[in-house]
Specification:
Chain lengths: 508, 326, 294
């Protein structure tokens, strides 16, 4: 209890100090509502979206992604690529960690070496696998050598740089973060709040916001109501469609609505005897009405997808490449052609086998549950029996990853590059290809997209892959999520990027 | 009395042991891998294996159970997989918040239910009585989480009278500050507490109202009471005093019954109001498959349950001598 | 019979329960709308000539849907009460009649279920067994059987010493027959009361579990799902959750009134009423009966 009291008094002191120090702060305190508490404040072991948002304020990476997801200089002043497998970054010298020590080339090397250590079980490891070695070059430069050309790499280099001297000394960064970013760590009351204070010594100038407090509040309705009641200053997705529409129309709040980097999709298990035939998958896809799902069930917050290509990557998008359109009559005709005959109970049969499978999703997202219920209803009209199965996320994802599912409705988030969405999930034999999809032609295109040197060629490769995928239909992509965020009128600098990061709060 | 308490504690030991075993069994049987929950969707099989080993999950179940029980005997409830802190500390940090909520709900139940029941009995047969009865029936039927969201909408969003989420200064501290002449923290704490407490306490209020009314009427209906009334005021006062005392017994019973239900109800309400208590912790622990934390919470609730029943029985014994002879 | 009609609670409760059962059976059969019939352009319609109770988030007719929901709710709550009462009364009577070490063992076993947090137990059982109405019944019964055990044990202990039981024992009737034929009918009053309250509690518990997405699977039309979806749309379309909430309230009210009425009906006299209430109270001394997960 004594520790608790100390923390409480510490908080009071911190607030008093924060109130005094940045006298020209545009915002004193900004309270941001999140759906879950953070899990780890070490950038290498970041686990959920709250981690991402808090880490963005605490740490700097070599680059930072701007609103169009283009890498911009951060700790790296500039970079060059002398050949396809070498990347050299010139590191700035005026950046300091929150404990006062300067950020050096050694810290960069340490970060990139340890992030791929299996003991850390980092989510970034698979993205950074292409790196063969990281060494110091002349004059404050870091040299990355790659095993093979890997075009998307730069988009992953916003990884926060950690202080080597502290990490090696056994300091646990995941609970006591020390970065070099525009905010320093104040305190973390588990389940209640994470308090960050403006960094007075930040190389980019002192933040215009003096203090940011992240508040976890699981219930989406409660978070929206808290904003309206003035208990929170900023909230962002995930939000209920109903609340999003209402808040957009409410003049009391600033709102931001952009195309997001997340998709919701149906994952077909190609190992399942019923679903191993692409023709059947195409027929089933014709029974999914993603227009209604996107516009009504998701309230327009997620836009219906045309294919696996995401509009946010304009260079790699082609609206003319489309998944099978919603058409119950065409689907019925296709099923007839495949030999599925309507049975007396309204369910199709072939060789004594019913056209029945399980459509699973997880319990935490009511829009997904409603989508599954809606799809099931539509499929019944064509004589297809989709049995709904809902369990909580750990049980659900365990089944999907284990391959013991038929069709699953879930999503992918943080898709900063099409490679993240397509390679590890659809390339033969890759770790996240849970549906065991395999097509050598698609593989070839995905590999080409990875190694191509121009964005245009990468775009061509992804379009070619998409054309193959709308024939094979291992995934039916339902929607491209939008990103919505809302803030109270008096919050200045409110301009989150599509990742939900709030660096803009540092500006006036 | 000491003998009574000691006997009770002796009864609780096998129960606690049973709870530990059941919790462990359930945790082993529930599908879902904590290592995967820890790392996320993109985990590779090697990463999962490494984390499982670090957490001791690759040991056979009886070894894990043995290690856990040995730890218990040393007073060590283990480390939370997710929060990298001792389970005991995590629970202790959040326990006061949930106790505050339960306490608030009980106060609401008594403050609303007891007077309402008395008034209903006094004005028996009139519309006041009928209104109280309607309340007592409805109150039990309304679902807690529905009430919570509706309250939040009406009082926080529409009327802006009360803060929507969070908890103020801990009540005990706020009381202390009140004594030093600063009422602000207490007022703030109460403004945060009132909505969740009322949402959770209305059911108890309805039950207490009903029971109190019935108990009082039971006494007031006795033949000797009517005679006493006829005789004069002072005897009526004695009778009311006796009736009220009779009403306290079911009140205490219900409060005791409520506590167990309150701990469960807190789970949903805490999530809605962002109340940083054990309920939120339980939901998070289960959805993350944080085994040591789930087991620790089960044990903690069981201990609380034991303490509450003990206290309720003692109070019963104090109020109603007849009960003591059981 | 006259007593029956004088007893307002009993009449009201019985009428409401009959109404509920009647609607549950008749409305889906007579309704022009299918339970699953979606109509997206007409989502969230308010009550009107087309849809007497309006429509839900998929445009399905709420009256049909809630009436079907009554079927499921009644099935689950009846099932829960049946399982928990049979188990609880069985254990309780055995413990109360034989006493001694059997009593101690059985009651400690019951204590574990009593002390174990209801929420965790129910969620864990559902997670292990999977979702579905039968598994939900198992989970809810596991959480609520102990109250029947406690009450029947207390009453059996009292009855055991009474003259008529001693008489029957002396002529050598088997214990099982004594328990079932002689004791059980005499202790059934309070147990029936418990059962009716249990129906209401089970309905609320089911709605809580469905609210979390872990109850019965869609598209089964449970009230819990209607309430859950309705709450997500509360601000723009408050009617759906209100309708579902009212349905739940109506059902729970019906069963509670019935329970109160039965209790009053069985013990009109002061002496027996006091005795049975005292028995319940004593049995409940260490027994939270409001074991619900919502």
């Amino acid at each position: 209890m004594k520790i608790n009291q100390l923390i409480n008094h510490g908080l009071v002191a911190a607030v008093m100090v924060a109130a005094v120090v940045p006298a020209y702060a545009a915002n004193d305190v900004v309270r941001v509502g999140m759906d879950v508490d953070a899990q780890s404040l070490d950038p290498r072991t970041q686990r959920n979206t709250t981690d991402v948002r808090v880490l963005d304020l605490l740490y700097d990476g070599l680059v930072s992604l701007d609103q169009s997801l283009t890498p911009q200089p951060n700790l790296a002043l500039s970079w060059e690529q002398p050949d396809a497998t070498t990347l050299i970054f010139d590191i700035r010298t005026d950046a300091k960690f929150h404990d006062g020590t300067p950020v050096t080339v050694d810290d960069v090397i340490y970060t990139y070496e340890t992030v791929v250590d299996p003991a850390l079980a980092s989510n970034h490891a698979s993205n950074l696998n292409a790196i063969d070695s990281v060494t110091a070059g002349d004059d404050n430069t870091v040299v990355f050598k790659l095993k093979a050309p890997f075009a998307p790499l730069l988009s992953y280099m916003d990884l926060g740089i950690v202080p080597k001297h502290l990490a090696e000394a056994g300091h646990d960064l995941s609970t006591q973060p020390v970065g070099s970013g525009p905010f320093t760590f104040g305190q973390w009351d588990r389940g209640s709040q994470i308090v960050l204070n403006a960094n007075a010594d930040y190389y980019g100038g002192v933040s215009a916001t003096a203090q940011v407090v992240f508040v976890p509040l699981a219930d989406n309705s409660a978070r929206a109501q808290a904003l309206e009641a003035g208990s929170l200053d900023i909230i962002m997705a995930p939000l209920n469609a109903d609340d999003t529409i209402r808040l957009r129309a409410d003049d009391r709040f600033q709102s931001v609505s952009k195309p997001g980097i997340k998709i919701t999709y149906v994952n077909f298990n190609t190992r399942s005897p019923l679903l191993s035939d692409p023709a059947l998958r195409r027929a089933l896809s014709m029974l999914i009405d993603n227009q209604t799902i996107g516009n009504d069930i998701f309230g327009g917050v997620e836009t219906p997808a045309t294919s696996i290509l995401m509009p946010v990557f304009e260079w790699g998008y082609d609206a003319s490449i489309t998944q099978p359109a919603f058409d119950i009559a065409a689907a019925s005709a296709a099923l007839d052609e495949l030999g599925w005959v309507m049975g007396a109970d309204g369910i199709r049969e072939k060789d004594g086998v019913k056209l029945a499978f399980t459509l699973a999703t997880h319990s935490e997202d009511s829009a997904r549950i409603q989508s599954v219920e809606y799809i099931q209803n539509l499929m019944m009209a064509a004589g297809v029996q989709a049995n709904v199965s809902i369990s909580d996320f750990p049980a659900f994802i365990g089944e999907v990853i284990g391959g013991s599912y038929d069709a699953a409705l879930l999503g992918w988030d943080n898709l900063v590059d099409p490679d993240v969405l397509m390679y590890v999930t659809l390339h033969t034999g890759e770790s996240r290809n849970w549906g065991a999809y395999s097509n050598p032609e698609t593989d070839a295109q995905l590999e080409r997209a990875r190694t191509a040197q121009t964005q245009q060629e990468r775009g061509e490769a992804y379009k070619a892959a998409a054309r193959l995928l709308v024939e094979d239909m291992p995934y039916y992509v339902l929607t491209n999520a939008g990103f919505d965020a809302f803030a109270a009128a008096d919050v200045t600098g409110f301009d989150p990027d599509v990742l939900g990061n709030l660096r803009s709060l540092t500006k006036d | 009395m000491i003998g009574f308490v000691a006997k009770r504690i002796a009864q609780f030991i096998p129960m606690l042991a049973g709870v530990v075993v059941v919790a462990f069994l359930l945790v082993q049987l529930v599908p879902g891998d904590p290592a995967r929950a820890l790392i996320g969707q993109s985990a590779t099989p090697e990463q999962i294996a490494a984390v499982r080993q670090a957490l001791g999950l690759d040991n056979p179940p009886w070894v894990q159970f043995y290690n856990y029980v040995v730890g218990l005997f040393h007073g060590d409830l283990g480390q939370s997989y997710f929060q990298k802190q001792g389970v005991f500390e995590l629970i202790m940090i959040r326990l006061p918040a949930t106790l505050e909520l339960a306490f608030g709900a009980i106060v609401v139940s008594i403050v609303i239910g007891l007077p309402l029941g008395v008034v209903a009995a006094w004005f028996r047969g009139t519309w006041i009585d009928a209104a109280a009865l309607v309340f007592s029936q409805l109150g039990v039927a309304l679902t807690v989480f529905w009430l919570a969201i509706v309250f939040m909408y009406v009082f926080a969003v529409q009327l802006n009278w009360l803060p929507a989420i969070g908890r103020g200064t801990p009540l005990l501290e706020a009381f202390g500050l009140l004594l030093t002449g600063n009422p602000q923290p207490l007022l703030k704490s109460l403004s945060h507490l009132i909505m969740p407490a009322v949402a959770m306490g209305l059911q108890g209020a309805a039950m207490i109202c009903r029971m109190v009314r019935a108990s009082m009427l039971e006494v007031l209906d006795q033949p000797y009471v009517r005679t006493a009334r006829a005789k004069g005021v002072s005897e009526r006062r004695v009778v009311w005093h006796h009736a009220l005392r009779n009403a306290l017994v079911p009140t205490v019973t219900i409060v005791g019954l409520q506590f167990g239900g309150l701990l469960s109800g807190a789970v949903l309400v805490e999530g809605i109001f962002g109340w940083p208590g054990l309920g939120q912790l339980t939901v998070a622990a289960i959805s993350q498959r944080d085994f040591p934390l789930v087991q620790g919470l089960a044990l903690c609730f069981a201990v609380l349950f034991g303490l509450i029943t003990l206290v309720t029985d003692l109070i019963h014994g104090a109020i109603d001598p007849r009960v003591r002879d059981e | 019979m006259k007593r029956f009609y004088k007893n307002t609670y009993l009449v009201l409760g019985a009428v409401m329960v009959l109404l509920l059962v009647g609607l549950a059976g008749l409305v889906p059969a007579l309704s022009p709308y299918g339970v699953e019939q979606m109509d997206m352009p007409n989502r969230f319609a308010l009550p009107g000539p087309q849809h007497w109770l309006g429509t839900d988030n998929f445009g399905r007719d709420l009256l049909t849907r809630l009436a079907s929901g009554a079927q499921i709710s009644l099935f689950i709550s009846f099932g829960t009460v049946l399982v928990s009462s049979v188990l609880g009364i069985g254990v309780g009577m055995l413990a109360g009649y034989f006493g001694g070490w059997l009593d101690a063992v059985l009651m400690r076993f019951a204590d574990i279920f009593l002390a174990f947090p209801a929420f965790i137990l129910a969620l864990a059982i559902i997670a292990v067994l999977g979702p579905g109405p039968v598994n939900l019944i198992v989970a809810l019964a596991a959480v609520s059987w102990t109250q029947y055990a406690r009450v029947s044990r207390a009453m059996t202990m009292t009855e055991r010493h009474k003259d008529y039981i001693l008489a029957v024992r002396s002529i050598g009737v088997s214990p099982l027959k004594i328990l079932l034929v002689h004791i059980l009918p005499n202790i059934s009053g309070p147990l029936v009361v418990l059962a009716t309250f249990g129906m209401g509690t089970a309905i609320v518990a089911e709605s809580g579990m469905s609210f979390l997405g872990l109850g019965v699977q869609p598209p089964t039309p449970t009230w819990g799902w209607s309430l859950a979806y309705g709450l997500k749309y509360l601000r723009a379309e408050p009617w759906m959750s209100t309708a579902a909430g009212l349905a739940i309230t109506f059902a729970v009210l019906a069963f509670n009134l019935l329970g109160d009425g039965i209790r009053d009906h069985l013990d009109p006299g002061q002496v027996t009423r006091k005795a049975s209430r005292k028995a319940i109270k004593n049995a409940f001394q260490s027994t939270p009966s409001s074991r619900q997960t919502s």
